[in-house]
Amino acid sequence: MALRLGLQRALRASAASRRVVTRSLSSFQHAADKFVVEFPEEHDGLNIEFNWSLADDDVTPHGDAYRNLQWAKLAEFAKDAKPAGKAVKVQEVDVEVAFAEYEAVFEKVTGYLSQQKNLFAQDGAVGSFKDNRTRVRVISDSPVVALFAQNLLVRVPTKDPHAARPIVVYVASEGEFKGQEPKAYLLLDKNEDDEVFVKVVVTGAADLNSVKDAIALAKKKLSEQTDAESLVLPGDVLLKADKSALVFNASGATRAQNINAGSLYAAHGNIWSAAGLTSLFGGAVVDAGKVQKKQVVATEAGAAVHVPCNNLVDAPKAAFFVTKSSGVKPISAEQASELLKKVDAGVDAEKFAALLKQADTKAFTVGSEADIDAALAKL
């Protein structure tokens, strides 16, 4: 009996002790309890996940950062802008320019972009076929550049802002860079996982076509390292009566006509692989006022429009080089490869000749783009 009472007293004392401790703990306020994190409400210019992804690109936005903003809203930002840049040649780091020079410019540009009141980014891709596709992010202080990228890039799902993007392009054309002599740098490197990536930096008064050309060069350099079987080519692709054709030196006026006729599959670039031809871009630059499209971006030399494209088309039946010669003249694969080097001195001309022979693609020179339809119909 005494033992039982003793145990009961001990249990009651223990319970009382626990109540005192509990009350003491509940009344004690730790310094950390006073530290409260309040996240601001998200809106078009503030998405926390997107901002974290920008940090991975060395940009830490202090103002609003817009990602793939709707056309109408971007157009409102750009309503008073008039493109007035000029062409600039991209310099390859460690080939044409020292890494130290690039690094200084890169740090200056990313720091500048981080401080902008409004920052614009467009996520898309080059390569309409999934096996040849590379994601691209364009980050700029200019809504016009964002509109241009929106029309130019292949449109892909963008739910995940952290999705791998082997090509990142930085464009700084306003503020301290406004009116400066344009410069463009391209760095090809590998990350800690041994994955190849390309960073392009464009500064000053560069025209929009130079941004396009820089993206195409980035894809070309990347493919040379990661996709030895395919070849990035600087030409258009026409699709007429189920026949595809390569066209080199196409004009903006004829390109607009082909868009209106629904026969332009690819403009400014394509990728030729064993599977067929892939459109490099999802848009085209054409002569202003000659294309039947609503969402048009004025450029220094014309207008940029979105051109929806299929994933893939068959290997070309013909390759046409628009030259100053008259009429339609057949040429050999070797002659075609020499003409291609005049379009792009850095292209793998031998691989191009081999692809022509492998696909039994006929090559021609034409004095006028008007001759192409008739020549293609005969094949």
From TrEMBL:
<dbReference type="InterPro" id="IPR001272">
    <property type="entry name" value="PEP_carboxykinase_ATP"/>
</dbReference>
<dbReference type="GO" id="GO:0005524">
    <property type="term" value="F:ATP binding"/>
</dbReference>
<dbReference type="GO" id="GO:0004612">
    <property type="term" value="F:phosphoenolpyruvate carboxykinase (ATP) activity"/>
</dbReference>
<dbReference type="GO" id="GO:0006094">
    <property type="term" value="P:gluconeogenesis"/>
</dbReference>
<dbReference type="Pfam" id="PF01293">
    <property type="entry name" value="PEPCK_ATP"/>
</dbReference>
<dbReference type="InterPro" id="IPR008210">
    <property type="entry name" value="PEP_carboxykinase_N"/>
</dbReference>
<dbReference type="GO" id="GO:0005829">
    <property type="term" value="C:cytosol"/>
</dbReference>
<protein>
    <recommendedName>
        <fullName>Phosphoenolpyruvate carboxykinase (ATP)</fullName>
    </recommendedName>
</protein>
